[in-house]
Amino acid sequence: MRKFFLFSAVLTLGIFSLSSGAQAASICDSTSGNVVTNCGFESGSFSGWSVTGNLYGGIGGFYVGVDGEQPNSGNYEAYFGAPSQNGQSSSGDLYGPPTTLSQTVAVTSYHLYEISFYLDNNGCSVTDGCPGEHNYFDALWDGQTLTQQYDLPNSGGSYDPYVFVVGSVNYPGALQFDFTNDSDVFFFDDVSVTDLGPGGPTPEPASLLLVAPALAGLALFARRRRKA
Which pLDDT score, from 0 to 100, does residue 158 have? Predict the structure, then answer.
């Protein structure tokens, strides 16, 4: 089943237009000092990652998995579209329970780190004027929330880049991302954690700086609906 829709997104932080590079090298693998294992899912799997929580349909099914349909770079990306409780039963929790993607990475205590990743919402939400369709996304570092977003609009076929500078107190560091999407899927790719050097005696364990993302596009169309 395919659903096509038209939407207008309000530009909040500028426009980033990133094209898919399906046959190119993964940009996160080319990032010097990146400590994330399988950062662009180029193994074709979740190797190096833990995937828990809402696994509706099973890993590798319609809702959660790795494929080569819409990579930001390289040949693969992860996709997350397990519906919320509301999406499964038309009642209950609008945004959970989520699918959780996590990984612990080797970091140096009391250093600053840059965390970056790319997200593309291929679904339609109430923000786009699609009744009853909700989604949820968050990112955490060592249990501290970097970003938490509800009912993101469709990305119009391009990835939105997210960049944070954080302080590391714990060793190892813990990356966590949570997803639900009642309409379609989030595509997710190119996760990097790189050392920026010592950050002083008492760096903040949460986000210090949000450089991006920005929601891009006016009058853009969704390309397909993954879910039956």
Answer: 97
What are the boundaries of each domain within the chain? 6-221
Write the pLDDT tens digit of every residue in 74-93. Answer: 999 999 999 999 998 877 89
pLDDT value for 23: 57
Whether residue 2 is predicted with pLDDT greater than 90 in this model: the reply is no
Flag whether pLDDT at 53 surpasses 80: yes
Which tokens belong to 197? 């050097």
Alpha carbon 188 to chain centroid distance?
4
Decide the pairing of beta strands 186-198 and 144-150. unpaired
Q: Do residues 35 and 107 touch, judged by C-beta distance below 8 A?
A: yes
Can you give the pTM of this predicted structure?
0.80
Q: Is the pLDDT of residue 175 over 70?
A: yes
Cβ-based burial of 52 (10 A; exposed 0-12, middle 13-18, buried ≥19): exposed
- Give the integer Cα–Cα distance in Å for 98 and 177: 9
Alpha-carbon distance 160 to 213, whole Å? 6
Sign of the CA dihedral 22, 179, 213, 15? positive
Q: Is the dihedral of CA 3, 75, 153, 133 positive or negative?
A: positive
Q: What is the CATH number of domain 6-221?
A: 2.60.120.260
Give the bridge partners for 175, in sequence order: 103, 141
For 186, the token pair is 């989030």
